[in-house]
Amino acid sequence: MEEHKEENKYEGLNLPNYNIPEDIQNVVSITTIDRLYNWGRRWSVWPLMFGLACCAIEMIAAQTARYDMARFGMEVMRPTPRQADMMLVSGTVTKKMLPSIIRLYNQMPEPKYVVAMGACASSGGPFKEGYNVVAGIDKFLPVDVYIPGCPPTPQALIAGMMKLQEKIDKQSIKKVRWYEKGKNDSNYVPMPILGPDLIDVRRNAEYKEAAAKKEGAA
Amino acid sequence: MYGKGILKGLSVTWKRFWDTYLDDISWWVRGKKRYYTTEGVAHRSSKDARGIFTVQYPEEQLIQPEEFRFVPFLVFDGNEENKEVRCTSCGICAKVCPPQCIWIVRTNDPNTGKPVPQPAEFYVDMDICMNCGFCAEYCPFDAIKMDHEFAIASYDRNVYNLEKLLKPASYYAEIRPLNYNKEEEARKAKEAAKAAKAAAATQAA
User: Which of residues 28-87 of B touch A (CB under 8 A)?
Assistant: First the structure.
C-alpha cells in the first residue's frame, strides 16, 4: 500500500514543474498561470450524465460512498452537454446511438475530453464484429483515455480518471487548440453516415405489390 | 405527518456522521490506524463498519480476493536474465477466447523449419479483452494467468506484447498463493508418478 502511494504522488499547485530559463527564474511567469489554470480544471472535471451499457453500472458505483468520485471533483454529472467537461462513453456504442453521441459531443464546449470506458467503447469488445455495433468510439471521436476492463471496476475507472488529470496537467494555455488564433475553437465532428436503410419506406407500396404478385404466382 | 421520511433519512446521515468520529476515536484509543492501512480498509469493507466507509482509492485499495481477475499475463520461470517462458504457443487460449483478442506467432527452427514450443510473438489486445478468464482456465501449461493489476488505463490502445505480458512465477505466487501451491503440488505429484513408472519399467526389464 505504501508503494502504491508513492506512485500516484501529485505535486500540487505550488511546485510548477517547468523548465524556466535562468534569467527569469525569479519572475512570475505564464507557467504558474498554466499551473493554476490546470489545477482548477483537474479538480472539476464534470462528466456528461449518460450510460450506455453495463459499464454505466460501474460508473454509478464509482460515484457512491464506497469509492466517492467527489474526492476528484467529478461527482457533478451534468445532464446537459453545455455544462459538461468530459464525455464518459460507458458501454457499447450501437450504430443507432452513435449519431446522438456525436451530437452531444458537438454540443459540449471546449475544453472537452472523451474517455472510452471498458472494452466496448474502446474497441467494440466482444461485439467488435457485430453488424449493429461501432467497433470503438475512437473511430469517430478523439479519445483521450482508454480504460480496459469488462467492465472496469470502480477503482480502475478512478485510475483512468487520474490518467486524464495527468493529461490536463501537461496541457499549456498557450498551446491548447481552443485558445489558439486562426484555428477552430471547437473540435467539430461531422455527423456520421452509416449507410442507407435496407428498406426504403417510401417504396412500401412497390414492395407490397411485388410480394402479392409472388404470392399469386405460387 | 409530512416530512417524516426526510427526518428519518437525515437522522441516518447524522448517525453515520457521529459514528465516523466515534470509530476514529476508538481506533485511536487502541493505538491503531483506521486510514491508509490494510487493517483499516479490511474493517471498513466488513459488515462491522460504522460511519464513513469510503476507500480512498489511490492512497488505499480495496483488498482483492484471490480469485479477482482483470486482464491476462504470461508466467515465466527462472529469473529476469534467463526467462523460461511456460507458454508453448499451442494456441488453445487464442481459440477459446470469446472476443478473440489473442494473437500468437509461433517460432520455427531456422535450420530445420520445424516449430519450436516457444512463442515468437504474443499479443493481447487489452481493450478487447472481456476478463472472462477462459484463457487461464484452458491453458494446459499454466502459462497464462489472470492479473490483479487494474490501473492500466492509457492514452492509446493497449495492445500488450510479450515484453509487457511476461511476469515472473514469483509474482503469480504472490497474488494467488492458494492456486499456485495447488498447481505446484499437482505438478510434483505428476513428476513423482512418472519417475515411479520409469523405475518400475527398468526393474521389469
Answer: 36-38, 52-62, 70-71
